[in-house]
Amino acid sequence: HRLLLIAEATKDAPLVRLRDLGTWHGGITPSKKRMDFWNSPDIRWLTPKDMSSEAVVSTIDHVSHQALTETTLKQIPENCVAFVFRSNILRRKLPIAIVQPSVTLNQDMRALVTCDDVSANYVAEVCLAQQDFLRSRFVRTDGSMAAVESKALFNHKIPVPPLRKQEQIADQLATFRSASTDLTSSLSAEIEARRKQYEYYRDRLLTFPDKK
Predict the structure, then answer these.
(1) C-alpha distance from residue 108 to each of 71, 87, 89, 172 (Å)
(2) 43-46 and 104-105: which strand pairing?
(3) Phi, psi of 67 (to 5 degrees)
(4) At what angle do helices 120-129 and 131-138 cross, to 10 degrees?
(5) According to the model, what pLDDT value does residue 202 have?
(6) Could you give the CA distance from residue 106 to residue 82 in angstroms, rounded to a whole number?
(7) What is the reported pLDDT for 194?
(8) pTM, whole model, 2 decimals?
(9) What span, in angstroms and rounded, lies between the C-alpha atoms of 200 and 195?
């Protein structure tokens, strides 16, 4: 349904490569031997373990300003679009998220800072709608660690209408995704309740009184 919405809303929009939508950034892991790089809550450091949600608002790990000044680590502006590029989680899904706060990245991540005329929310929502396709086409799983083929992904094209239209579509897609998530959660809760009910009656039926 999300892909159909995108197709209908962007049928006259030009197709643009992901690499041309802004600036892509990577990251590093500062030396763990330098405790002064890590004993600080100063700067968020985004890793694959932070990508369990489609909207990231915080990170588990942080680095210091010293790490930022003494290494090649770069701070990425708020509202970037982040992708996991190297992790065995890629064997089953391709995590993509809009990252609301400013962050730095580890080496397994890539983040897109969009141009002024491109909505980060729009790019994130379109890529989330295409998530399964992107993983099937651009993720290699034949090595010891699954990884995105970066050059191929960067050349992938998405429709890019004018900015105002992008924002409208992003809002529609976010609403649709939220409703789908709520429905899935409700169904999961109902299934769990039915499972417990089944187990209760099964146990009642299979429990026989002891014969004296």
Answers:
(1) 17, 7, 11, 30
(2) parallel
(3) -60, -35
(4) 70
(5) 46
(6) 11
(7) 63
(8) 0.81
(9) 9
- pLDDT number for residue 180: 58
Classify 52 as helix, strand or coil: coil
Between the alpha carbon of residue 106 and those of residues 67, 137, 162, the distances in Å are 12, 24, 33
Write out the two tokens for 170.
């992003």
Q: Please state the separation of Cα 175 from the chain's center in Å.
A: 17
Q: Are 49 and 90 in contact (CB under 8 A)?
A: no
pLDDT of residue 105: 98
Single-letter code of the amino acid located at 43: I
Edge to edge, the sheet with strand 80-84 lists: 22-25, 109-114, 80-84, 96-99, 55-56
Residue for token digits 């809002």? Answer: 171
The closest of 39, 142, 153 to 91, measured between CA atoms, is 142
Tell me the average confidence (pLDDT) per consecutive run of 10 residues in the chain, 212 residues long: 80 94 98 92 95 94 95 96 97 96 98 97 93 96 94 96 94 77 53 59 49 50
In angstroms, the CA 203 to CA 68 distance is 60
Task: Report yes or no: 153 and 134 within 8 Å, Cβ to Cβ.
Answer: yes
> Would you state the pLDDT for residue 151?
96
The residue behind tokens 């939508």 is 21
Query: CA–CA separation, 132 vs 3, rounded Å?
Result: 11
